[in-house]
Amino acid sequence: MSDWLKRLLAGLEARVHARQSAVRAVLVIAGIAVVAALGAAAWPIIMELHSEQVAAADPRPAYVNRVRDQIQQATRDTFSRLPKQDRSGLLKLRIEINPEGQLISASVAQPSGFSDIDTLAMRIVKEAAPFEPFPPAMRKMTTSVEILTEFVVQ
């Protein structure tokens, strides 16, 4: 084989090898891009699943909802026995509950503007107590629960 032919074949081999390296690099970059795109598309799903797991593992939101339901029922019962109010108001109460379900404290966080309505709301919360004791898993997480609850009087 002549030197010229050897050099031609060597040059062709070098070009093929260079193109193979470039093709490999492009394939690696494309693979990374695909993985990144799949990860970005899956991220919201992963975060939603994580949120659901955290919510399922944390009994506090469900407990707070049960306390609010109990206060709401006491409010309905109280207002069913009272004459219809000719005024309306919105007030917020801050209540704190211990692990046994006892009411530690209750205070007006935002008054309605009518002291008798505020007093009635405080009485309703005190009469709604005691609440259910904390579930065992919740006792491991917290020593008391503070709830800001809203009363709408119409």
Strand content bin: 15-25%
What is the CATH class designation of the largest domain?
Alpha Beta
Main sheet summary: 3 strands, antiparallel
Radius of gyration: 34 Å
Mean pLDDT across residues: 82
Count of the domains = 2
Number of strands: 3
Coarse structural class:
alpha+beta
Please mark out the parts with pLDDT under 50 across 5 or more consecutive residues, or reply none. Answer: none
Which fold does the CATH topology of the largest domain refer to? Answer: Fusion Protein Consisting Of Minor Coat Protein, Glycine Rich Linker, Tola, And A His Tag, Chain: A, Domain 2
How many DSSP H or I helices?
4
Secondary-structure element sequence?
A: HHEEHHE
Architecture per CATH nomenclature, i.e. the level-2 architecture of the largest domain: 2-Layer Sandwich
The end-to-end distance, rounded to whole angstroms, is: 104 Å
Name the helicity range.
55-70%
Shape: rod-shaped
Strands side by side in the biggest sheet: 2-1-3
